[in-house]
Each structure stands twice: as structure tokens, then as C-alpha cells.
Amino acid sequence: MKERIFSQDHLLGIEQLSVDDIEIILETAEAFIEVSSREVKKVPALKGKTVVNLFFENSTRTRSSFEIAAKRLSADLINFNSSISSLKKGETLKDTVLTLEAMNPHIIVIRHSASGSPHYLTTFARSSIINAGDGFHEHPTQALLDALTIQQRLKTLRGLKIAIVGDILHSRVARSNIILHQKMGNEIALIGPPSLVPREFEKMGASIYYDIRRGVKAADVVMMLRVQEERGAKNYFPSIREYRNRFAINREIFALAKKSAILMHPGPINRDVEIETSMADSEQSVILQQVTNGIAVRMAVLYLLKGEIHETLN
Amino acid sequence: MDEKIKAKIMDDKKMKRTFQRLAIEILERNRDAEKLVLIGIQTRGVHVARRIQQLIKELENIDVPLGILDITMFRDDLHKHEQQPAVKKTKIDFSIEDRDIILIDDVVFTGRTIRAAMDSIFELGRPASVQLAAFIDRGHREMPISPDFKGKYLPTSRRERVKVMLQETDGKDQVLIMEPKGF
């Protein structure tokens, strides 16, 4: 058996990961699933380590998922809430992070509306940086937990057709998933209105469909994206009703996918907008399994990065 | 590290006898076999435990539950490694409350793995007793730990390594002492 080594100091995106890195994260996550099924859901792996949740965008699920993950590994966790922080008082991102680092954390989990902000942090921070979503760029732990869910249900991560439906343009979840499945050699179909699925995505190796029936055909995985009203998604199509008529998933359309196909959604779902309610609660829907796997994947990432204090680059 | 074989300590016949003796001793010491559970430590301890489970079945026709324990997250040297050691699965799908646990590993050396295993077990419940079975005891203990059942005591030097090879993982039953090349 060849010895594979996890080669990353940070988790900035799927982009930076090798196939080995991805497989090591998923295998480690598989082992951590058991911890969450115990009566005492805690192991001492990260005892004495400090994790900072630094969220500049609203998030409940990702933030609490990281929080539970860190706590189940016995790390100490600080939630840094940007709305009550000194950022409101005019402090720059760099000063905020330098101030936090003066308290010697080991890992900083950051979500920020500016693409590339986690990368920027690595130029001066000494902690391990985890990207929990940066602008329209990447959301690597979401793609990893999706991959774990696919692997559990379909018993493989290779030779699959992955259909992603909705607002691809504004979706960091879609980008991370496209990059991941590109690396695994899977076929990727992107589906949505032309305004939300620009042709540029063909350069990432995906096929583009404006007709959901054609795109979903023979798919192993159908991944629905949320209509992100807060990002102005509604300006990209005439009405929610028209969007629903053309791009929502229902039983009839889902039946065009493979028999074994699974339905995914990163949440929060808009019932009867992008996903018909009976579909969301169906046997094929793995939406809640995705949430459970999120904890295991984040535990794996926190464990593997470990958060040694790095020498700064400057 | 490059290694070479220094000595072959046991062959398949000797190992078979030793496994049988271990199984018998465990049954002798634990009259209430209904309370018995085996827990193998990843990875080789699990295979040793399976052998013992099989032998107990042959001797007394009792199905003793077998659990798998990964102690990585309870190691005392996690902060010392450059790379985080790989986490393997723990699978103990029965209650250990008030059971007599036989903790099983292939080799007992410093005792640190066993210390970690005990910490890990006590997170899962409160057993009636914990006993330790090791196929090879190679000395050099750094903890106040001693096996209740040992296949063989094998004094070694610290630079050597004891390799318990099993049919199911290595295609052959044998015990070897390895030493670094160039000695």
C-alpha cells in the first residue's frame, strides 16, 4: 500500500487539492462519522487547539457545522461575529486578523463576500486558513461533503454524470463541485437560464444545457442550487414562476435521470421554487445526509490541517 | 527506513499453538463467557482478535462479540508528528457496559497504545473489567501496563522491530524480528 500524504497547510479551495488529498479527507471523514454516533460525541484529537470562526457573511449552518466539528475534536472555538466587531468601527480585514492572531489561534475559518480573501490571509497569517465560502469563488467543504454523500450512496466517485441546476454564475458551491468532479474525471452538466449559466463554464470542462430534461438525462447525481434572491438572482430571469416552470426539479423530470440517481441540495432549500416539495422529502433526496456528513468532513479537515503555527511568508 | 530480517521467531505451526493457548487462557480466566467481548486495536490487533474469536467458537461454541478500535485520536504524540497520522474506523456496535473486555493487539511495546486504547474505551462506557492480550510482548515498557495474556515474551533492542505477519494480511503466518540495514 503506497503511503499517501496530505500535503496542505490550508484549505483554500478544491483547486489546490490533489486527488490524493481529496481521498484522504473523505477517508478520514468516514472514520469521524462514528464519533458522532457515540453517546459521548467527543475525542481529544485537537485538545488545546483554538479555532476561530471568522464569518463576515450571514451563515447559520456552515458556522454551526464548523463549531460542532471543532468541539467534537475537543478544540476551543471562538465565534467572531462581524456585525458586532470592530469592522463596523472601520478596522481593515488585515488588522482584524492580526489582532485575532495575537491571541494565538491555530486555525481560522473564514467566510467573506470578497473572492480570494482566504488566500490573502495566508500571505500574512500564521494560522491554518480554511475557506468557508469566498464570494462567488469557492466553498470547498461543501463540495467535499457532497462528494462524501455521493460516495456513500453510489459507492464510487468515478465514472459519474453530475448535473448541477440553477444559478451557476453566483454559486461558489457549483464552482467547487465542478472543480472536484473535473479532478475525479466525471462528466459535468450545467443547467439553467443562459443569464445564470454563461458559456465560459465550458472552459472548465462542463457541458451546458438550457433544457433541464436534456441535462438531467441519465445523470447519477442531480444537484439543485438555491435561487439566491439576496444576490439579486431574480434580476436574471423574468419571474420566479417562469424559473420554476423551466428549472425546478419534480418527479417527472427526475425520472429522466438514472434509476439509482440521488437528489442533492446545499440548503437552505426554497420549497416549490427550485425543488418540488415531495421531491425534497423523497427517498432519492440526500439533503439531510449532506448536513450530517458536513460535520464529519469538517472534523476531517480540522484534524488534517492540525493548525501548526506556520512561519509567515513575509 | 530500510530493514532486513534478523531472525524468524515463529512459523505457522508455532503460531497456531500460541493462538490456541491464548484462547484457552482467556476462557479459563473468564468463567462467565457470556460477559466477554473482544476489542482488537487497528490494524493488526483486529486480525489477531478475529483468530481468537474463531478459536473460542471452535472450543466452546460461543459467539463472542468483536469490536474494532482505532486509537489515533487518543495518541499522546499527535502534536509531535509532521503529518497527522491516518485515522481509521472504530466499530464497536454493542454496549460495553459491565462487560469483561479483552483488549487485543499484536505487539505490546511502550504501552502507550494501550493507554490510549483504555482512554478511548472509557469514552464508550464503563466495562466490568479490561484485560490485555498481546501476541508478542517485546519489553521496553514506558507505562505501568502488563499483558494478562501474552503469546510470547521476546526481549528485543529498541532499534529492532517485531513483525507479526498473518495469512489474511501478509499471505503467511510468521513472526520476524527486523533490524535496520547497515547494522
Describe the protein in words.
The complex is a heterodimer of chains A (314) and B (183). Chain A is 36% helix and 14% strand. Chain A contains eleven helices and nine strands. Chain A has helices at 19-37, 61-72, 93-101, 117-122, 140-154, 172-183, 212-216, 240-247, 251-254, 277-280, 287-305, and strands at 50-55, 76-81, 107-112, 128-134, 161-165, 187-191, 207-209, 221-224, 262-264. The mean pLDDT of chain A is 92. By secondary structure, chain B is an alpha/beta fold. In chain B, 27% of the residues lie in helices and 29% in strands. Chain B contains four helices and eight strands; from the N terminus they run E-H-E-H-E-E-H-E-E-E-H-E. Chain B has helices at residues 12-29, 44-60, 112-122, 167-170, and strands spanning 3-10, 36-41, 66-69, 100-108, 129-137, 149-153, 161-165, 174-180. A five-stranded parallel beta sheet of chain B has the order 3-2-4-5-6. In chain B, strands 1-8-7 form a three-stranded antiparallel beta sheet. In chain B, helix 1 packs across helix 2 (44-60). Chain B is globular and about 50 Å long. Chains A and B meet through helix 1 and helix 11 of A and loops of B.
Core attributes:
heterodimer, A: 314 residues, alpha/beta, Rossmann fold, 2 domains, five-stranded parallel beta sheet, 11 helices, 9 strands, B: 183 residues, three-stranded antiparallel beta sheet, 4 helices, 8 strands, 27% helix, globular
